[in-house]
Amino acid sequence: MENSKRTCTCGQLTAADAGKTVILNGWVHRTRELGGLTFILLRDRYGITQVVVGDKAADDVKKIAAQLKSEYCIAVKGVVAARNEKDINKEMSTGAIEVEAQEIEVFTTAQTLPFQIDEVRQKDGTVVLPNEDLRLKYRYLDLRRAPMQNHIILRSKVTFAVREYLTKLGFLEIETPTFIKSTPEGARDYLVPSRVHPGKFYSLPQSPQLYKQLLMVSGFDKYFQIARCYRDEDARGDRQPEFTQIDMEMSFTDRDEVLTVTEGMLGHVFKETLGYELPVHFDRISWDDAFDLYGSDKPDLRFDMKMQDAAFMADLADFNAFKAGAANASKTIERHKRSGLKALVVKNVADKFSRKNIEALEAVAKTYKAKGLAWMKIDAAGKFEGGISKFYAGKEDEICSKLNAQKNDLLLFVSDEKWQVACVALGAVRKQLGKDLNLYNPADEFHFAWIIDFPYFAWNEDENHWETEHHMFTLPQKKYWDTLESDPGSVKGDLYDLVMNGYEIASGSMRINDPALQERIFEIVGYSRERADKAFGFLVNAFKFGAPPHGGIAPGLDRLVMLMCHEDSIKEVIAFPKNTLAQSPMDDCPSYVDDAQLKDLHIVCTEREGE
Fold it and tell me: Which of the chain's ends, N or C, has fewer CB atoms near its CB within 10 Å?
């Protein structure tokens, strides 16, 4: 083939192209022989086109076609032909045509694949995937699979839509340093040794937090960045050592403006990339209500099952397990004026739930520190049965009225002297029920909500001191400034999280811009002036030169795209992720470096794994 450069892609041909001579480039997805004809499904990232090598094809073309195997990289020159009506493949975007091959050029052959690129499905429709380490070892092959290509393409479109929207609003995209000063921000820093400054280290940023605040001091009132962030955390959940944030900061603003800008940006992203209309404004739920009603500060609101206060039941029967939860025994409960006896009404499932089902839910509750999971069913006659029903026989009318329970409902209870323990444990049960019973509203595919009015401080029982709930640069709500030192536990922060479908996807706050207020926060959390100056002195000093009020937010790009793709792991939307041990099976990263490099960096390794 004299010129094998493609003239069109495999996904763009239609019946209107019939009669055209085209050149397609791509990979052999599949071949089959039928009645002396060879059919080749040719694939590129735009789609798949069927190529036919028929009786009229030249002998050398037939010979090459007969030797083709999966994932050979080839070029095909041929004529587009419209298929007969009965032969149209409606499952393919190019199913109305095929290309009659005139020439075939093989760019490269392919070895036997470690796994199939084509989807393998079980009888129930479940996609069978290779094990994770095999997928990551051959990630370049895994990325050829249509779902992975679609995910990465969507991620690119989301990133573009973010840039498009924020730029139109006057935001400036500004890069902040990748080599920074190591500061205490929660997780361990990844450290980079300096060759020219022996014994000194750069840190890779856990976030651009300090630098974006400095940009506000510099007079750049609207900043954003698609920011790479790094945290050296132990393997835990769905985490990656490197991840990406849509980092934003604004000066002369307030919480409402930050939330409105974020809502507008996400509305634009979803409309442009998925054609999905989000509401103009998202729900706003206080932190207290989120825990009290859903048992979590990242509730899944695609189903409506709310937890209820069941403190009244402690007085209806001599059931000791309910006494402590209803007594408001702890200071936390007294402050929130809410009891630690929580109820969940699971509608119309009593006849379907066995004791084994309930024990599985109890195991979930105990995982989250509950002492147990009490339960009762309401039978067809409206009477309680099973579980703790013997304690409440004859009290059905009052209990059902207050809990809005009906026949065939299942009642679940968690009681604990600590309000938050009871909420979290029963909230985990609620989340499990949503999954097990598929309670999600299909019309509510993506449900966003703001969690606001967080506690500013959290008490560290192990170390016996106050810590900030988010970070130390968050602005306390002004009405609490006079009582910061005298009553830290009651202080609410001017901070906010954005949650979607049960995941936190963004965290933000208004920031402190007054050096004196910042120093008060340092003192409350036990940061001495010397320690604070050493870690954050450059930021606090900047505030002394006229710092504007400012605030921002940082949606996680990986998690956002993961949820848009209906996946449950961010590895599915990152081109080259690490495994759960923060390793890359593909390129054996992290790896040892030779002694000469270590010597240049003034580093001596005293121990190496396996030695």
Answer: C
The string of DSSP codes covering 545-571 is: TTPPPEEEE--BHHHHHHHHTT-S-GG
At 506, which amino acid appears?
A
Compute the half-sphere exposure of residue 258: CA atoms within 13 Å on the CB side of its CA: 32
Residue 423 contacts residue 308 (beta carbons within 8 Å): no
Query: Residue 234: what pLDDT?
Result: 80
Cis-peptide into 241, omega within 30 deg: no
| Omega prior to 299 cis, within 30 of 0 | no
For residue 236, give the 3-state DSSP assignment: coil
Q: How far apart are CA 564 and CA 549, in angstroms?
A: 34
The pLDDT tens digits of the residues spanning 350-407 come to 999 999 999 999 999 999 999 999 999 999 999 999 999 999 999 999 999 999 999 9
Q: What is the DSSP letter of 57?
A: S
Check: CB of residue 22 under 8 Å from CB of residue 13: yes
- Cα(421)–Cα(295) distance, integer angstroms: 9
In the DSSP assignment, the letter for residue 34 is: E
Q: What's the number of CA atoms in the CB half-sphere (13 Å) around residue 549?
A: 11
d(CA 500, CA 283): 11
Strands 21-34 and 465-468: unpaired
Q: For residues 547 and 551, what is the distance between their CA atoms, to the nearest angstrom?
A: 12
CA dihedral 74, 79, 84, 89 (to 10 degrees): 30
Q: In angstroms, rounded to a whole number, what is the distance separating the alpha carbons of residues 97 and 84?
A: 9
As a three-state string, the secondary structure of 479-500 is HHHHHCCCCHHHCEECEEEEEE
CB 183 within 8 A of CB 536: yes
Please write the tens of the pLDDT for every residue from 407-424: 999 999 999 989 999 999
Place of tokens 């009015």: 453
Helices (H), 68-180: 132-137, 139-142, 146-168
> Comparing C-alpha atoms, which of 393, 412, 405, 399 is closest to residue 343?
412
Pairing between β-strand 495-500 and β-strand 448-452 as defined by DSSP bridges: antiparallel
Q: Computed over its alpha carbons, how large is the radius of gyration of the chain?
A: 30
Q: Do the beta carbons of residue 233 and residue 239 sit within 8 Å?
A: yes
Dig out the tokens for 547 from the structure.
């710092």
**Whole-angstrom Cα distance, residue 295 to residue 237?**
19
The dihedral built from the CA positions of residue 426, 432, 434 and 436, taken in this order, carries a sign that is: negative
Q: How close are the terminal C-alpha atoms of the chain, in Å?
A: 55
